[in-house]
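Tokens as discussed.
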């Protein structure tokens, strides 16, 4: 359960085996409760209840025989909360955290975080809200362009060692683990070490961040395809020609550093200079901003932009502009109607 009441200094009895109850114990301690433990229903028979007991957290550990104790607590007016058992220890879950807001975490992602003992998180994941989603140990392994606080090989080593030590490990990444997230490498590291691993897909920023700016990556009779490109390194001339000839929408992730080369390369490859282009910075985060220009002027228009950013190239950018103009016109009409009615 997610704890939403003040338990500071309150006496809470957690029932269940040590393995099954370990995460419940950690959650209640993190909430400030004074935690008492009963690990076996046989030890509970006739045992006195702690004085001033505020709550019983009954972990569903599969042991028969807890009913008598729980009935005694209810008869005494002590609330009983059912708690899920912790999952089997010693595995890794790669979790896609989406574009950086907990609102776009999947149900599976929230469950994995709740069941975690350790979370290794990236800077583009929704890490600010992690204390509300998990009581696990939180480890920042975030990497910035040109500065890797923890190298990729060390991240993989930390994950594997923690899982082999008996922890449920979550590797929380921005977007989706398999979209420029090096998830394949991390899965391979776990498999090589004999550690069970699973992947929880996330909402990729390639689609969600343009959507946050009102830009659809496909639109009927405008674009029936989109291509996702990493912007970390400049593209080759062959890749520029391929993109320019393919058509549809081009989405570039983390492309501010290579924006100049990209725009120039696409123009050399034959893409027209008036092709609309958008730079969406800090999608779903404070300070989200969209800069719209065309392929010929985007370099100067986006001079003050910075990563994290998603670049969108294609006629779908005009769809967003048209929708915004219609929305603005509708708002003006609403304000005019309101003023006329009020006069």
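Sequence:
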């Amino acid at each position: 359960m997610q704890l939403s009441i003040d338990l500071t200094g309150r006496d809470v009895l957690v029932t269940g085996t040590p393995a099954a109850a370990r995460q419940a114990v950690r959650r209640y301690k993190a909430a400030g409760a004074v935690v008492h433990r009963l690990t076996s229903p046989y030890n509970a028979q006739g045992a006195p209840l702690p004085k001033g007991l505020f709550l019983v957290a009954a972990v569903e550990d599969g042991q028969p025989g807890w009913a008598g104790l729980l009935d005694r607590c209810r008869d005494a007016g002590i609330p009983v909360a059912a708690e899920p058992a912790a999952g089997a220890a010693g595995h890794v879950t790669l979790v896609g955290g989406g574009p950086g807001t907990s609102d776009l975490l999947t149900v599976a992602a929230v469950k994995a975080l709740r069941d975690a003992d350790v979370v290794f998180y990236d800077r583009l994941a929704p890490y600010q809200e992690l204390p509300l989603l998990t009581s696990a140990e939180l480890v920042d392994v975030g990497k910035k362009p040109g500065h890797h606080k923890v190298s990729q090989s060390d991240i993989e080593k930390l994950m594997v060692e923690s899982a082999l030590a008996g922890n449920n490990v979550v590797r929380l990444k921005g977007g989706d683990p398999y979209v420029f997230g090096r998830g394949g490498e991390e899965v391979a590291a776990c498999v090589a070490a004999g550690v069970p691993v699973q992947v929880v897909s996330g909402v990729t920023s390639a689609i969600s961040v343009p959507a946050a700016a009102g830009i659809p990556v496909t639109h009927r009779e405008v674009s029936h395809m989109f291509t996702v490109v990493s912007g970390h390194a400049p593209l080759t001339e062959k890749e520029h020609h391929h993109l320019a000839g393919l058509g549809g929408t081009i989405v570039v992730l983390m492309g501010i550093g290579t924006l100049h080369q990209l725009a120039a390369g696409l123009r050399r490859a034959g893409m027209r200079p008036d092709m609309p282009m958008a730079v969406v910075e800090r999608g779903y985060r404070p300070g989200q901003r969209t800069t719209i220009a065309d392929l010929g002027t985007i370099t100067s228009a986006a001079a003050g932009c910075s990563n994290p950013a998603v670049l969108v190239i294609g006629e779908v950018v005009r769809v967003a502009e048209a929708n915004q103009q219609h929305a603005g016109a509708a708002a003006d009409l609403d304000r005019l109607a309101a003023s006329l009615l009020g006069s």
